[in-house]
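Case study.
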Amino acid sequence: MIEALRTAWLVARKDLVVEARSRELVYTTLFFSLAAILIFAFGFVREGRPNEDMAAGILWVSLAFSGTLALGRAFEREREGETLRALLLAPVERGAIYLGKVVALVSLMTCVEAVIVPVVVLLFNAPIGRAPGLVAALIVAGTIGFAAVGTLFAAMLIRAHSRDVLLPVLLYPITVPVVIAGVRGTAAILAVEPNLALARMWLTMLIFFDVVFVTLALWTFGAVMSE
Amino acid sequence: MAFALVMLVGAPFVVAQAPAEASMGLVSKIFYFHVPAAMLTLSSSFVCGLASLAYLARRRPGADHVALAAAELVVVFGLVVLVTGPLWARKAWGVWWVWEARLVMTLVMWMIFVAYLMLRRFGGPGAEVLAAAVGLFGMAVSPFVYWSVNLWRTMHPTTSVLPSLPSSMALPLWYCVAAFVCLYVGLLLTRVRVARGQAALERAYLALED
Amino acid sequence: MIAAPFDFDRVEVRDVSRHFGRRRALAHVTMDLHAGELTGLFGPNGAGKSTLLSVLSTLMHPSGGSVTYGGRRGRDLGDSLRARIGMLGHDLFLYADLTARENLEFFGRLYGLDDVPTRARAALVAARLDDRADDRVSSFSRGMRQRLALERAILHHPRLVLLDEPFTGLDDASSVALAARLTAVRDAGAIVVMATHDFDSADRVISQAWYLRDGRAGSLPGAGGTLRERYRAAIRRAAE
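After joint prediction, the assembly is written out as follows.
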């Protein structure tokens, strides 16, 4: 168990070092999110001002899109040099490799979110000050859920054909509950009449989702990655 | 399979006997197909999920055949639900689509299993194992989808889909459910047989090269 | 990682087959590999060499037949077997954005080795890369990457060393150096299996030679001309 955590930490740290070197993923994900947000905002503008109710939805949808891109690109990097195979060859628990990659992706996405959320708050005059901790918790829990499923799928598609197209096709339907929970929870906080209890219910659901799917993914990662 | 077909042929006569609902006439009969199809769509997703789990655990080809057949049936029966639902809704409430838990869940599950089939078709060799993970996750996510859409929609109550049933309608309904279950099992077994035949053909093909 | 230590001195491949759908990659391959021997695998592209190496590394399960390591099956051994296997893949298994030293230290730690920095330094010296230790691999030439990749593969002193095209892209001097390094590894008691197209370099180091064609394996005779000539003769015979 300790060994597995140590391995996960090694893998995560390696991923973060690689990312810190090139910063390719952070920048591209960030700017893609911003572009998506702007496009949505323009799409929903009414009377020259974007609708405030849209803030939550636009935030989460753009995170889902950019997250999928980041996932695809992160695993494309593992494909060059076939390094994922090298990891699988090592005498370590498969689940630990998976965990390390999830941690790295969540860290990356959190950095992006740290910029995106303030941008959304500014653009939409979103009253985030009401419960910033709760909003942060929703975003982190949602990111973990998304990353948990996405990392498994992206890893298993690494050797498949048509992987670029198949990843979103597979990922979006399964992460529907995450998006619903995230959007509705955030919207409940930002609404004209905030309903924090409801937001907390959504957060509970997200945490449930995270626990179930991280566990499932840990169980199936080894089976799915052996050829 | 033959039994299922017999039951299904008998179904229209039974359904015709059920009283037509006042404002909707013939369209109300859709109900008798819609409900069983919906039950079977969800059940099939569980069959696929469990077969996928078995396949991941033991890699027995039989489990894979069942998972594939069940996934295809989710798509087929799901299509029935998704087509008959709006037809009913249009007549009953004047709208094509209702954002309520069961219908949206069926849509999402349908999409997941369409994605399952796309993976098997386009994923290249070795996609069976990957698809099994999708099948398993698909089964696991269904309660979450229901939970989330339900919670979402309770803030905006809509008309309920299943009115309370008078017994004269209940009997044909359960008959149709039984008929559909037989149809499902028949289709599943037939499809599994086809898949097994395909696998035997591949083995023969390979053996020929030796 | 600190699994029960396990060692073996032979690998037995028995009737191993592997197919992908309808395409047969390996057909009833049987061979014996012993410690202190370097086995060369030759054959046209797509003949199944890489597939065989994948099966030997336990990354791929055979569709039929079995591979035993010291009489025991890979499935029963898990981590402790993988700790004794080292592989140089076709795509080198290196992280381009990390430095040479970081690559070695990462894998060293992953394999649970003691005193990783020292071993990494020794590996860098053996690869003649100690002056470029802190440069990113992306800045290396093909030959340099190959040397580093080999050292990464044997950093943990594995018993079974699998090499997929190690001589690709090397100039003459590097080929000679690599051949010497492989001879040393072989003589230290490792079981080495090497897939390659470089007959001249291989001829210097191999103990036995096999060829693969359409998934079928055959051994090459030990005498009767140069390795290349024997290989060509065998392929011609197999085509008839």
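Observations recorded in class. Chain C has a mean pLDDT of 87. The radius of gyration of chain C is 18 Å. We will return to this complex in the next lecture.
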